[in-house]
Write a structure and sequence with these properties.
It is a single chain. The protein folds into two domains: 52 residues; 125 residues, Beta Barrel (Lipocalin), CATH 2.40.128.20. It has one helix and twelve strands. The N terminus is likely disordered. The protein has 189 residues and is of the alpha+beta class. It has a ten-stranded antiparallel barrel with strand order 3-4-5-6-7-8-9-10-11-12. The longest helix has 32 residues. The N and C termini lie far apart (68 Å). Strand 6 and strand 7 form a beta hairpin.
Length: 189
């Protein structure tokens, strides 16, 4: 004879009780509570695994808002102190990074944005500098808290290095254009 499972409950001794179509509320509540706890633990594990994966990608440690100071060396030989803010967004897979870096001094500013993806430790993407309306491509490497790229556009080329260690980041840019060199130290907000 086949029994309808909805008419049975398991009591604490593991025996089956048929309750004329009514559920033992204590037992059902306990099983429901255990199911909710199991679902919650499962969701927490999935989130921690995906967060751990993103943190172990080539852009680990970069995500977030940063600010700090530095210097910019211009082609006319002058050097100025600059204030900078950066924002990095790492995509869910940990293999893509969007960056915006805004720096200004009393007489100079630049507004750099980039969108890069990685394949292993190799990265490539696009960049732009809004105040001068220039844009181009970049390629390089990323991993271990460091990004090294070569950026180029029509009439402009530069090397860019970003190093992140905990909540401290350094940015170095060198070129033969109007900006000869930039050195920035930032901390995570």
């Amino acid at each position: 004879m086949r029994r309808d499972v909805s008419d049975e409950n398991v009591n604490l001794n593991g025996k089956h009780d048929i309750l004329n179509g009514k559920h033992d509320m204590k037992v059902s509540s306990r099983f429901f509570g255990q199911a909710i706890k199991a679902a919650g633990i499962g969701a927490a594990l999935m989130l921690s695994v995906s967060a751990g994966y993103a943190q172990s990608g080539p852009f680990a440690g970069f995500a977030g808002s940063w600010s700090g100071n530095g210097t910019v060396s211009l082609s006319d030989g002058t050097t100025e102190r600059i204030r900078c803010k950066a924002d990095y967004k790492v995509n869910g897979s940990g293999l893509g990074l969007k960056q915006s870096l805004h720096c200004a001094s009393d007489s100079y500013k630049f507004d750099l944005s980039s969108d890069v993806t990685s394949q292993g430790d190799r990265i490539s993407g696009n960049w732009s500098e809004a105040s001068r309306n220039i844009f181009g491509n970049l390629q390089g490497t990323a991993g271990g808290g460091q990004i090294d790229v070569f950026v180029e556009a029509s009439g402009f080329a530069a090397n860019l290095t970003l190093r992140t260690n905990g909540n401290k980041q350094t940015v170095q840019i060198s070129s033969k254009g109007e900006i000869r060199g930039v050195t920035i130290t930032m901390v995570k907000s």
